[in-house]
Specification:
With 155 residues, the chain is an all-alpha fold. The chain has helices at residues 10-35, 45-55, 64-85, 89-106, 116-122, 128-151. The chain is elongated and about 60 Å long.
């Protein structure tokens, strides 16, 4: 649909496609968060993930495996550190450091996910946090981005 807007320059077309995709995906996640009162669907790092998967979709940091595993690894790191060390400046720093080490080791760096250990530790989250909202929300973003970028004929 948007690809037929020949009057737009390539840069303006990319701007329109990226911003519309981010808008639609964030709207859907926010809407699910609003109507499903039993779960939290939306966490702040998802906004930053959408910047990557929509605005710089060809970046290695925006790959599906980086988005999904970066979020899951980072959230798990925070939950694990909170379980053993509780909430303190030291535990937050260890949680983030552990997340970075594991993401580097697995080649799944995703900068927005760096916020997940902080959220997990400050929020005293359990491993349920890793599943919902993190894994399910990251999966939603990945699937949406794959479909949207394919429909928009983006590589």
């Amino acid at each position: 649909i948007l690809m037929n807007l020949k009057f737009l320059s390539k840069n303006n077309k990319d701007l329109l496609i990226a911003s519309l995709g981010a808008f639609i995906c964030m709207f859907l996640i926010s809407y699910l968060n609003l109507i499903d009162e039993s779960n939290v669907w939306l966490i702040p790092p998802f906004g930053a993930s959408l910047v990557l998967v929509m605005a710089v979709h060809d970046s290695p940091l925006a790959k599906a495996r980086n988005v999904f595993f970066g979020h899951v690894i980072s959230a798990s790191s925070g939950v694990l550190v909170f379980y053993f060390l509780g909430n303190s400046p030291l535990s937050i720093s260890i949680g983030l450091t552990l997340a970075i080490i594991v993401m580097l080791f697995t080649k799944t760096i995703h900068p927005p996910a760096g916020a997940n250990p902080v959220i997990a530790i400050l929020g005293a989250k359990s491993f349920e946090f890793v599943i919902m909202p993190v894994a399910i929300g990251a999966s939603f973003i990945v699937i949406f981005a794959l479909i949207y970028n394919k429909l928009m004929k983006r590589s």
